[in-house]
Every structure is written in structure tokens, then in C-alpha cells.
Amino acid sequence: MQPLSVRMRPESLEEFYGQEHILNPNSLLYKAIKNKTFYSAIFYGPPGTGKTTLARIIAKELDADFYELNATTTGTKELKEIIAIAQKHVYTIGGKPTYIYVDECHRWNKIQQDSLLKALEEGVIRFIGSTTENPYFAMNKAVLSRIRGVYEFKRLENDSLVKILLKALNDKEKGIGMYPIKISQENLNLIAELSNGDARIALSNLDFIARTIRQEEAISKEQIQEAMQRRITYYDREEDKYNLLSALQKSIRGSDPDASIHYLARLLEGGVDILTIGRRLLVIASEDIGLASPNAITIVTACIQAAQMIGLPEARINLAQAVLFLACSPKSNSCIEAIDSAIHDIKTMKIDDPPLHLMDAHYQGAKKRGFGVGYKYPHHYGGYVKQQYLPDNLYAEKKTYYHPSENGKEKQIKQMLQHLKKIE
User: Fold this and answer.
1) Numbered ranges of CATH 1.10.3710.10 in the chain
2) Numbered ranges of CATH 3.40.50.300 in the chain
3) CB atoms within 10 A of CB 49
4) Tens of pLDDT along 286-331?
5) What's the CATH number for 158-228?
6) Between helices 257-269 and 274-284, what is the axis angle to 10°?
7) Can you list the residues of the chain whose pLDDT is less than 50?
8) Which three-class secondary structure string do you get for the chain?
């Protein structure tokens, strides 16, 4: 019998869950498929996010001849044979378009990729490639220039995974609805959470558990833990992942590298995905470190991107580097204090327009309104010249939002600003 993940593949756009950022009733991709104007594309993103499934739906929606290849096992010879067949259809009245879907397309070498060029250029074939690698680095530019769109698939949200699991549980023909399976909403959410955005993993583990336990037995948290080979450390009421993320941030803010790395380890062992941890680290880089270590955001971004490219378990090393760097960095919350203070004033005060000399003066008639008149271009004065920038009422109050700390690089920034204030 085919795996549950294969049997439950959606066969229409209406059954397709996830990727709403590129595939929704108002998106161009959705309309191109429905209007039969879809041509060629590359889908890239993590496994189990629907790349192959969408390619098959497209071929079905467009009533096309569809050839599915895998770049790891198929070479130029097979591709040329398909192109030869497709060429005959092009000149046949009423002939169907030919779609060639190549999974792991980045694995084709330059010669293999170049064999697509002429057929794409002449419209003999329509190409859909899927890859887990960034195609802008992994694919030939000549191929990319002939592809209509490059679409990034993201890990499925837990809500989408739960919908997929529920559909499998209720489907008596293709799914496992013939079994009297008992599972709580909490444990369905748990399977989704531990699947890290991969529908194939979610369905495979649900199928395995359902076929293994006694029919009258309810699926437990411990069985899910055993099946997915992941320890569950944050699903108790007193300790969930948000508490651990909070503890991580506060430990980094407190410059405690040992506590920080401890909470990172608990998050990883609990099954929290790279992106969730990465988002929190990026916030910390600006909220708690900021200009005290201006390169923190760059280093943390690089670590997160590396972690996503490498994947777990090795990605733990990249995340550890980011966490330890942040914990050991000088701290400043001046960035969040500045922006929140400015937003508060905008919400609670009547604020004047920008000064006239700062207004846009690049259109005809602007100077008649006084726009741009009297503006001093700082670079003509050696890089700095004193003039009003704040709106009149805030300038009159001598309003300040940014208050640099004495920590790290920000101490130098503070000294520089104090020096500028003394210049007449």
C-alpha cells in the first residue's frame, strides 16, 4: 500500500493547504493556473511543503501531458526523448502542452540544464523545477531568464498541518478514516509542531501510530514522542515554548551565556523550529544589543541563514554561535526606546508638518510654496551643518528620542552626537 502522504496528495487547488503567500484566489499564480495561462516556474523550499503536489495539480488543471523526472536519476538522454515527443505535439492541431517537472533540478549540471534552453525558447515544453536550494545560486542564469516565475515555498504553518491531518483522519477511502482513531486536539497540534512544517513527516507519523496501537486506545503524547523520536519538553501547562523563548531572551539580556545556551538547547530538544528561534534572536539583536554592537544584527542574520541552509542537527551549532555572541555582547535598548517614544508622541500629540526646507522640492512649483528653500546640504559643510530637522513644535520642546548608552560602540556614538551639538 502507498504511504499515507502519497494517498492524501490533494488533486485540486481547493484541496491544497498552505503557501497562501503565493497561492490564494487573488494571487497571480492562482489566476494563471485557473485561466490556463501558467507557463514555467521553479518552486524552491523545504521538503514536504507541496512543491511536487502543486506541479501535478497544475498539469491536471491545464489538461497537459505531464512528465515527472528526478534529476538524481534522469539524464540528458531521457530529457531529449521527451522533448522530441513534445515537438510533435506542438505542430499537431489540438495538441496538448507538455510539462516537464524535474525534482531536485539543481542537481543537473550545466550541460543538462542547457539542454532545456532551446525547447523553452521555442515553447516546445513548459518547465516546472523544484529544489530545496536557492535557484538563483543553483541554476544557470540562462535557464532562469526563460522561466516565468521563481516561487519560494515556506514550511507549513501548524494550522495547515492540522487541517491536513484531520482530512486524513476523516477520509475513509484514501486516508485512515476506516480506523476508530482517538486523538485529542492537543496531540494533533503536537504532531504538527514536531513535524517542523513538513506535511510528509506529519502524515507518516500519524499513519504509523494509528496502525500500531489498539483501535480502542487513544493516541497519547508519549506515543507521539516515541514515534517521532523527539523529546517533548515544553508542552506542559507550566512550561511551554513561549516561556522558554522568554527565558532565552532574558538570559541573553542579562549577559549570561550559560543560561542562554541552556534555554537554546531546551528549545531545540523540544522541537522548536529554526525559524521560530531565529526570529526571536533577530529581535534580541536590535532590542537588547542595538548600536552597542551594530554588527550583531548582521552576524545573527548570517547564523540563522546558515542554520536554515544546513538544517538540524548541525544547525544547532550556528544557532549556538548566535546566542553566545548576543549573550556576550554589550547591551543597549536605545533602539526600542527611541522608536516606541516617537510612536507614542505620534499617537498622543498633534504634531506639525516637517519644516519647509525639508519638503520635497523636485517638482515644478515646489519652490513657490517655499519647499526646499534654505535647505543646507550637509556634505557642502564637511558632513554636518546645524539646522532644524524636527517639526516646529517638537523642535521648540527640544524633543529627543535617542539616548545612547555608555556601552560598547554606542559610547562613541554618544560622544560624536555631543560633539555635534557644540558646533554652531
Assistant:
1) 338-421
2) 19-152
3) 25
4) 999 999 999 999 999 999 999 988 888 899 999 999 999 999 999 9
5) 1.10.8.60
6) 150
7) 235, 237-238
8) CCCHHHHCCCCCHHHCCCCCCCCCCCCHHHHHHHCCCCCCEEEECCCCCCHHHHHHHHHHHCCCEEEEEECCCCCHHHHHHHHHHHHHHHCCCCCCCEEEEEECHHHCCHHHHHCCHHHHHCCCCEEEEEECCCHHHHCCHHHHCCCCEEEECCCCCHHHHHHHHHHHHHCCCCCCCCCCCECCHHHHHHHHHHCCCCHHHHHHHHHHHHHHCCCCCECCHHHHHHHHCCCCCCCECCECHHHHHHHHHHHHHCCCHHHHHHHHHHHHHCCCCHHHHHHHHHHHHHHHHHHHCCCHHHHHHHHHHHHHHHCCCCHHHHHHHHHHHHHCCCCCCHHHHHHHHHHHHHHHCCCCCCCHHHCCCCCCCCHHHCCCCCCCCHHHHCCCCCCCCCCHHHHHCCCCCCCCCCCCCHHHHHHHHHHHHCCC
- Output the pLDDT for position 200: 92
C-alpha cell at position 423:
558646533
Q: Which residues belong to CATH 1.10.8.60 in the chain?
A: 158-228
* pLDDT digit string, tens, across residues 243-260: 889 999 999 999 999 999
**Residue extent(s) of CATH 1.20.272.10 domains in the chain:** 241-327
Which CATH number describes the domain made up of 241-327? 1.20.272.10
Taking alpha carbons only, the member of 22, 71, 31 closest to residue 49 is 22
Query: Quick count: other Cβ atoms within 10 Å of Cβ 212?
Result: 12
Give the integer Cα–Cα distance in Å for 109 and 76. 10
338-421 maps to which CATH number? 1.10.3710.10
Domain 19-152 has CATH 3.40.50.300: yes
Cell of 193: 509542531
Contact present, 160 and 50 (Cβ < 8 Å): no
HSE value, Cβ hemisphere, 13 Å, CA-based, for 89: 18
Question: Cα 276–277–283 angle (5° rounding)?
Answer: 95
CB-based burial, 10-46: b 16+ in 10 Å, e otherwise:
beebeebbbbeebbeeeeebbebbeeeebbbbbbbbb
Beta bridge partners of 218: 182
